[in-house]
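note to self: dont lose this again. the chain is below, predicted strucutre after it. 285 aa total, dont forget to put it in the shared folder this time
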Amino acid sequence: MSEAVVETEWVQQNLNNPKVRIVEVDYDPATAYEQWHVPNAVLIAWKELRHPVRRDFLEPSDFERLMSERGISNDHTVVLYGDYNNWFAAYAFWLFQAYGHEDVRLMNGGRTAWAKEGRPTTKDRPTFPKTQYKVRRVDWGSRRAYLWEVLNKVVHGEVGKNVLLVDVRSPPEYKGEITAPPEYANEQTQVGGHIPGAISIPWAQAVDQQTGKFKPVEELRRIYEGAGITPDKEVITYCRIGERAAHTWFVLKYLLKYPAVRVYDGSWAEWGNLVGAPVKKGDQP
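---
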């Protein structure tokens, strides 16, 4: 499928491989990692990837500290997986890539696939020697879109022409019927709706809901190209806080090999709280 994806069988065969570090990334470790996890997997709660003060990612120096504490070195093959169909694992993958860790993979299917296949689990937390991790680069340019960029493209009529916006939230969020999915009831925005011109392709269309794994590449291509999302355009994905958008970014960039895909991680939590920002409701772009 892609070198960026590893199957559960490969992970099971490499549970004790000293060159591989398995990492579970959870929204809520209390209901996931702490109940059971892949043997020898270390935990990163998604909020540990966030800046302690402002709405942003943790600084490179803090990323180095986090990696070192988890026993992750620059030379490790890092395999990420997690809850919520790998939403936050894909979000972490995005950050690892931006901070220059090239040898990072996503375990296809995450916790869902591992559990349904009856693979070994544990509650034991592994301990690994501390490392001296160093961030090799900071490169957001080809991965991240900022508010001012998206707003400029909307105002100047580029969306739908040179630039395609993909709203990967649920249809009720896109239409403006709700402002957040039920699991995020405490993280509301001021208004509901979508960015004008954005095409609705919910993230879940890329996943087999029975297995938790990505759908075959040809089926994925039909889904996105059938909705007008083609590789000859610049594509920007967004959701509400960026995690579902990172999942679709991964599909487009690493499974379908689209050359120009970025995540607007400010997403609806930013846009829907911005005074004067253009908003559209209903089911049409």
